[in-house]
Fold each of these.
Amino acid sequence: MTNNDKLDTNTAKVNLPLMFRLGLFQMGLSMMSVLTLGILSRVMIQEIAMPATLVSMVLAIPAFISPSRVWFGQISDAKSMWGYHRTGYVWLGTGIFAIASFVALQVIWQLNRVASHTGSWVWTTPTIGWTALLCLVAAIYGLAICASSTAFAALLVDISTEKNRSQVVGIVWSMLMVGIIVAGILSHQLLQQLTLGAPLEVLQAAVNRLFTIVPIIVFGLAIVAIFGVEKKYSLRTKNTPHTNREDSITLGKAWKVLTASRQTGSFFTFLLVTSISLFIQEPVLEPYAGQIFKMPLAESAKLNAFYGSGILIAYGITGFLIAPRLGKRKTAYVGCIFVALSAGLLGLSGFTANPSFLKLAVVLFGLATGVLTTAAVSLMLDLTIAESAGTFIGAWGLAQSMARGVAVVIGGSILDVGRRLLPHNIVLAYGIVFALEVVGMLLSTWFLNQVNVAEFQTDTKLKWVERTDDFHNSSNTN
C-alpha cells in the first residue's frame, strides 16, 4: 500500500461526527474564557472593587503568553507523553488550567480579605504579595492553555489532509461560539440564587461552586473530544515536516511575514486595529451590567449567551447570503460600521438603565462581530500564499492573540481613568470605553480601504514568497 493509499483510507474515517466531537475541546476553551473574562472580571471589578486596570492586566496575561505555543509545538513534536505526541499534552494542559482557574479564584478571595482591612484599595506588602501570586497563577493558566491548544491544533493537522483540513478546522472552531452560549446559560443556572449585593460568604460559595463544576465539565469534554483519535487517525510520521505549521511562528517571524509587502502590512494594520477595538469591552461589559443596570451576577453571565447566539447566526447569514452578494471587502466594511453602531448602542443603553435595551445591544454586537469576523477571515485567506498557509495563518493568529491582550488592558485602564475623571457620572465613565471602541472601528475602515487583493495576488505575491523563503532558509540553517 502506498502512502497516498494510506492517506485516503485514514482521511475517509475523519467524518462529520468526529469533527463535532473534536469541537468539544474548543467548546471547553470558550467556556473557560467566559469564566475568566466574564465572571471573574465582574467579581473583581464590582463585587470586591479591585482597580479595573489591575484586573485587566491580570486577565491579559494568558494572551501575552501566547508566543510560548512555539515551544509547546516543538516539545509535542519531539517528545511523546504516555506514548502519544498530542493526547497527553492536551489532557495534562486541560487539567492544569482547570485547576489553575479555581486556585486563581481562591487567591482573589484572599486578596480581597487583605485589602478589605483598609476599607479601600491600598498597596500594602500583603496586597502586593497576593497580587504577585495571582499573576503567577494567571501565567500558569495561560501556559496550560497554550500547551493544550497547541497540541490540539497540531493533532488537527496530523489527522487531516489539504483536502479536508478547512472543513475540519471550520467545524471545530465554530464550536467556540457554542461554548460561549453553553457557558452563559450554565453560569446563569448555577448563580441564579445570588441577589445583587449578596453577602460575601454567599457570593463566595456560589462562585466557588461554579468554578468547580465548569472546569470539571471542560476537562471531561477534553477527554471525550480526543479519546482514541490520535491512535486511530493520526497520519504523523517521524519524517512529517512541521516547519510550516501555525504553531511554529515566533513573534519575529510573524513580524517579517506581516510586513513582507504593502498589502499584507495594510491588512495586518486593519486586523490589529479591528481586534483591539472588538475586545476593548470584554473586561468591562459584565461589571457594566451589574453597576449600571443592577443585574445580578447570574443575569450578567447570561449576556454571553446573547452575544454567542448573535455571532452564530451572523456566521451563517454572512457566509451564505451577505458575502457572496457584497463581496468580502465590502462585507468587512459593513461589519466595521455595524460593530461601531452596536458598540454605540451599548454605551447609550447605560443612560436608560434598561436591562432589555442592554440585552438587545449585546445581541446586535454579537451579530456585528459575526459579520465582521466572517468577512475578515475570508479576506485573510485571499491574502494567504497556499505554499506557506501555515506560516501566514500562524502569524495572523499570534498577532490577533497579542492584540486581544492589549485590548483587555486598554479596556480596564480606560474605565479606571473615566471613573477618576467622572466620579459622579459612572455611566459616562463606562461610555468612554464604548466610545473608544466606536472610534477604533471607524478608523479600521480607513485601513481596510488600503487593502487591494488583486494587487497582492499579482504585484506582491512574488516578493512575499522571496522574503518568506529567506527566513525559512535561515531558520533551517539555524
Amino acid sequence: MEKYVTANVATNLYWLGRYLERVAMTLREIAETYDKVIDVDKDAGVKLYRKYDIELSYTNAYDFLNEAIFGDHSANLLTILTNARENAIICRHLLDSEAFGEIIALHALFKDTDNNHLEVDYKCMDHAQSLIGEIWNARSHREHQELSDSFFRIGKIVEEADHRIRHNEDDPVIQSIIQEIDTITERLVHDHKPEQKPMECKADLLNELNSKIDKIIIDRD
C-alpha cells in the first residue's frame, strides 16, 4: 500500500469516484423515467429534474433523453464526464490501464454522440452503464488494494449516500453506507470516532458526511 497520497491527488480520486457514481445513478433514473414518459406520465421527466432544482422542458420521450443527458443544465452528463476525465488524467499514475481506458471511452461515447447528433437510446445508456461497471470491477479486483483505492471508493459511496439523503432521508440503506464510510475513515484517520448520536434531519446527515470527508482529505498531512 502506498504510504503517501497528496491532498490534491486524494481530492481528484475522491471526485472521480463521485462523478462516475453520479452518472451511473442518473442514468438509471433517466432510463426508468423514460419508460414513464412513454407509457404513463409525459411529465415524469419534469418531476424527476425538479429534484435537482432543474426545470426540464421537452416535447416527447426522445427529446427527454436528449435534454436530460445533454441539456443546458447543471446535471448535464457530458459535463460531469468531462470533469471525471480531467480528474482521471491528473490521477493517471494511480489508475490501472484498464480503468483509465474505460473512463476515456465513457467520456468519448457521450462526446461523440453529442458532436455527431446521434440518437440517444437504451443501447447507448446500457453501454455507458457497462463501462462504469467495468471501471469499478477493475479497481475492486486489483491484487493489492492500495491507499488510492480508498479515496476512489469513498467518493463512490459518498455520492450514493448524498443522493439517497437528498431524495429519501428515510432510506434504510443510508445507515449501512455511512457505516462503510466510517470504516474507511477509521483506516485513513487514526483518531476518527464514528458519530454515535442519531441524525435528526437531512441537513444533519449531509453535514456529518461533509465533516468525514474534511477529515480524510482536507486534514491530511
Amino acid sequence: MIKNNQLTLSVQLPDDETFKSYQSAVNQSVCNLLNDFISTKAELSQENTIYGFYLFGIQGVGKSHLLHACCAQAQENQQTSVCLSFSELRHLSVEVLDGLEHIDLICLDDIQFISGEASWQQAVFDLYNRVSEHNKKLIITGNKSVQDLQLSLPDLRSRLSWGYIEQVKPLSDDEKLLAIQFRAQQRGLLLTDEVARFLLTRLSREMSSLLDALDKLDKASIREQRKITIPFIKDVLLS
C-alpha cells in the first residue's frame, strides 16, 4: 500500500526504459542478474533467500534506467512494484516508507542522498527487515560502493552487503551510439550513424543529456515536419 503523501512523488515510469532498451554489452551480466532476482520467487522456508540488491555506479551509467526496467519486468511478471528516489524522499517524513513491504518489488534510487540523515537510514534499515519478513524484494542504488557511501548506521551498511552487489560500468561510445539509435527507433525516428556520432561529439556524452537532446529533437521534428539531420540538429540544439 502506498501512503497518500507518496502520491506527490514521481512514480510514473518512462515506458521506453526497459532491459531491451538498455544497450550495454559490458553490463549484460548485471541485467541478467537483476532479471533473475526479480523473477525468481523467494521462499520463506529457504534460509539463504536473498531479498536485497545493491546497485552502484557513477552518475550517468543508467542506474535509474535499470530500476525502471526492473519495474517494467515485474509488471510483465504480474508483480506489483514501485520506484522512488531518495532525492525526493529525503524532503518528506520517513513514514513515507510505511507499508511498502506489501509491494512485490521496491526500487529506491540514489541512497547517497541520505548519507547524513540518521532517521532516514534507520527507516531504510527497518524497511529492509520488513521486506524480508514479507517475502518481497528490494533494490537500492547508489553512486559508490557500500564501504564508500559514508552511511552512519552500521546495521544499514550490513544489510546492503547481505544481498547481491553489482557495479554498473560506464557505456563505451559505441554502446551509447547503439542506445540512442535504439531509443530513436522506438520513437519512430531514424538516426543514421553519421547523425548519431555528431550528437555524441558535439553534446555531453552523458546518456541522460543525450536522451534529453533526443527528446527535444523528436518534438521539434514533429512540430516542423523535418527529418533529423546534422543541419537540423544545429538549428535545434546548437544555434
